[in-house]
Amino acid sequence: MFPQPLAENKRLQRGLYTGFVGLILILWLLPLFAVMLTASKTADEIMAGQYWTWPKHFNLVENFQAVFAQTNMWGYFINSLIITLPSVLLVLVFSTLTGYVLARYNFKGNALVFALFVGGNFLPAQIMMIPVRDLMVFVGLYDTYLALIIFHVAFQTGFATLFMRNFIAALPDELFQAARAEGASPWQSLRHVVIPLMRPALAALAILTFTFVWNDYFWAIVLTQSDTVKPVTAGLNNLRGEWTSAWNIVAAATLFVAVPPVTMFFLMQKHFIAGLTMGAVKG
Amino acid sequence: MSHVRLIDIDKYYGTYHALKSVNLTVDKGEFIVMVGPSGCGKSTTLKSIAGLEAISSGEIWINGRNVTREEPGDRGIAMVFQSYALYPHMTVAENMGFGLKMAKRPRAEIDAAVKRAAEILRITDQLDKRPKELSGGQRQRVAIGRAITRSPEVFLFDEPLSNLDAALRTQMRVELTTLHQQLGSTMIYVTHDQVEAMTMASRIVVFNKGVIEQQGAPLELYHNPVNQFVAGFLGAPRINFVAATLVNLRDGVAEVGLEGAASTVHIPVADPAGLTNGAKLVLGVRPEALKIGDASDAALAVDAQVRLVEQLGRETVLHVDASPLAAIGSESGTHNFTVQLGTAAPYAAGQSVKIAARASDLYLFGPDGRALNRPKLIAASL
Amino acid sequence: MSDLWKRHRNWLAPLLFIAPGALLFGTIIIASSFESVWISFFDWDGVGPKTWAGLANYRELFADPQFYVSLKNNIIWLVMFMAAPPLGLALALLVNQQVAGMRFLKSLFFIPLVLATVTVGVVFGWVYDPNYGLLALIFNLFGAAAPALLADEHAVTFAVVIAALWPQIAFCMVLFLAGLNNLNPEIIGAGRVDGARGWNMLWHVVLPQLRQVGFIALAVTVVGALRSFDMIAVMTSGGPFGSSEVLAYQMYEQSIFSYRFGYGAAIATVLFAIMIVFITWYLRMMVRLEKETR
What we know:
The structure holds 3 protein chains of 3 kinds. By secondary structure, chain A is mainly alpha-helical. Chain A has helices at about 10-30, 30-40, 45, 60-70, 75-105, 110-120, 125-140, 145-170, 175-180, 185-195, 200-215, 220-225, 230-240, 245-265, 270-275. Chain A has 15 helices and no strands. The longest helix of chain A is centred in the first third of the chain and has 32 residues, at about 75-105. The mean pLDDT of chain A is about 85. Chain B is about 25% helix and about 35% strand. In chain B, strand 9 (about 205-210) and strand 10 form a beta hairpin. In chain B, helix 2 crosses helix 3 (about 105-120). In chain C, a hairpin with a 7-residue loop joins strand 1 (about 40-45) and strand 2. Chains B and C meet through strand 6 and helix 2 of B and helix 10 and helix 11 of C.
C-alpha cells in the first residue's frame, strides 16, 4: 500500500491526518458551500447585499418551494427523467448485444468496428451537430424528447459497447465452450452465460450512462427549444438569465439540479468508480 | 552470539492473534526453514523479521542490533519473494543494483556487485533484459541475485519455489542448498512443502496456529516428533494414526487398546504425567514402518486387504483396508492404512495381506496430542 | 423457415444482435461526422439550398482572426489542463489511507466530477463575481477590490479553465486512486527492502506501475481540453467579444447564431482533424502499452 499506512496505534497521528484531509476537503468544496449558503438566504438579505453572512433565517426550504412554484424547474426535472431513463435502458440493451458480438465472434472487421465504437467516443460533439440537427428537423423530431433520446442512445452506445465488450471478453472461455457443447444457440449463450454474470457491469454502466445523459448540456440546447421538452441543464442556464437578481432562488435551483446525479453517485458509488476505472486497471 | 533473535513476538491482526509469543534464535550460517500449513504464522514471522509487517509486542535483533523499530531497508536483510517481485520497468542489472543505488553507493561498486552476483547465478547474459523476457526460473535467479548484491546479514525467502513447475523446483532446491554452502550466509526460508524443509534445512521450525510446535534438525523432528501435529506434518506419505484407549499403565509401560484390534499393544511411555485409565490416545505408525507378511517380532499385526496399489518404480505404496481397525484422519478420506515398501513389488488390489509393525516403530500420543514415548534415539552425529 | 434459421443462426443471430447498436451509432455518429465534412465545402444558411464553395470556407477561416483566438484558447486549455493529472495524483496520494472515515471523505472529493458542467459553470460564475463571489470575499479580506475576471479579455480563458479543472482533477483522482489500489504489494515490499522511501519509492517503484492509469488520465484530459464547450457557453458565451471562444464554441456560434452552417462545418472539421491526430496517436500508444505489460 502506498503511501505507507499510518500505524494503527498512533491515534494522534491518524486524528491529525483526518483533520488535515477534512480541511483540504472544505477548501475543495468551497464553491459548493458558497452556493448552499446563498440558497439558504432570504430575498431581503440578497437585496441588502449580505452575501457572506450567516443567514438570519434558514430559508432553504422556502427557497426550494419558490423554485418549484415560480420557475419551470420541476417541469425541466420531469423532462430530464423522461429523456434519461429510457436512454439508459436502451443503451444497456444495445451495448450488451453489440458488446457480446464483438467479444465472442472473431469476424473480419471486428477490430475495425470496435475501433469505430471507441474512436467515436472521442469525437467532438460539434462535428455531428449540423447533420444530426438536420436529421431531427427532417423527420419532424426536432424539439421533442425522442430527438434527445435517439441521439443519446446512439452516442452512449459507443462507450457502453467498449465497456461491455471488455467485460464479456474477460469472462472465462470455458463457460461459452460448455454452452456450445450443450448445443446452445447464440441467443441462449447470451441469455444463460452472459446475462446472469453481468449484474456488476450493468450497474456500473447504468450509473455512468445516467450521469452522462442527465448532465448533457450541448445537445439539450441544440435539439430542443421549448420549455416543455428542455432538461434541467438547459433549464438552469435559462433560469440564470431570467432571474438575475434573485440569487437565492437560482442557488436553490442549482442545488436542485446537482442533487440527482450526486444522490445516484452516492447510492451506487462502488459501481460508478468501477465503471470509470474499468479500462484503467487490470483485474 | 546469535545472528537473529526473535524475543516474545506477538502479532495481532485486529482481534486475530496471528503470532503467539514466538521465540526463535538463529545462529550465523544456519539454514532455517519455517514450515507449517496455511495460516500458521510462518509468513507473518518472516515478514516481521523483514520489517514489512509491524509486530504488536516483542523484539527483533539482527546481528546484535535491536531492529524492531527499523525500516526494512535498514535491517541488513534481503528478501526473495514468492512472485519474485522484480521491478518490471527495469533491466535485470538495474533490478539487481537498485538496493545499492538507494544506499547511494558509487556506480563502480554497484556494477561490480551486480556482476559478481550474476556470475554466481549464471545470468550474466541476461543483464540487459527486462523481466518479462525471462522465464520463471530465470526471474527467480534475478530475484536471488538482487538479494546477493546487497550482501545482507540475513537472507529471507518467502516460498520462492512455489511458482515453479515440479522439475524446476527440484533443480532449484539443489541450487539453493549449493548457494548456501557457497556463501555461508544465514538464510531463513519459509515453505509449506515439507520435502523442501526436510532436504534444505539445517534446522526446521514447525509452526501451527501462530505457535512454534517444534524446532530442530530435520531427522530429529522426523523420528522424534514432540506431538501429533509434527508427526503428521513431516513425512510423505503421511503417518498412519489409529484411535486408541489407555487400558492400563504400570511401571512405565502403557497397555493400549486399539479400536478394532482384538489384542492390546504394550508401549513404553516416557512421560506418563496426568494419564488415567480410559484416556483417549492416538497411535502412530509411519508407512515405511509397516511390513507385509512377517509378524514374528511385531507388536502390532493385523489382517488387511489391498485396496489400491501405487507403483512408483523405486517403491510401492499400498492402501490397505484393515477393518475393523481404522486409520483416522487420513489424507484420502478413507480408513485405509498406507504402507510404503522400498521396492517395486507385485501386489494387486483385492489381495489379502498381513501388516505388522515393531514396538520401536510405534508412536503414542496423549489426549492433548503430546508425544508420550520416544521410540527412536537419534545419534548426535546424524 | 425455422430450419433455415437454425442452419444459419450462428452468423445470422450475431448479425441481428449487432445491427441496432451498430446502425444507430453508424448513422448518427459516424455518418454525421463525414457529412459535416461534406457540408464544409458549401455555403449554407440551414434553410435554403446549399451552394458549392469548394475550399472557400477554409480560406476564410485561416484568414479569420477569431479562428486564431479560438485556436490560441484551445492551446491554453490544453496546457492548463495538463495540471489535472499531477494534481489528481497528489490528491489521490493524500487520501489513500485506511483511516476511519476516509472512505466517506474520499467520495466527497469526487462530487465535482458528478455535477453537470452547467452546474459547475453556474457555480464558478458566482465565484468570480466581482461583487459577491468567493473571489471578491478573498480580495476584500485583504482590503482589495476583486478583478472582474470574466469581463477581462486577457484573464477570462484562464478563469474558465480553472473552473473546468475542478471536475477534471476529480476525475484524475478517481483514476489514480484505482491505480494505487492495484499496486503489486510484493513489489512495494521489495522496494522497502531495497531501502526506497518516500520520494524514491514514488518515483522508482510506484509511478512506473501507474503508467497505464496515467496514460488514460492524460488521454481523458487532452480530449476534455480540446472538446470544451459547456463551460464557455455557460460562463461567458464566448465573450467578452469572443476572447474566450474555443473552436467548439466558435463553430456553434457561427452555425446557430450566424446561420453560416457551411462555415461552422469547416470549423468543426478543423477541430475534428486535430482530434483525429490525437486519437490515432492514443490508439497506437494504447496498443503498445498493452504489449509492454503483457
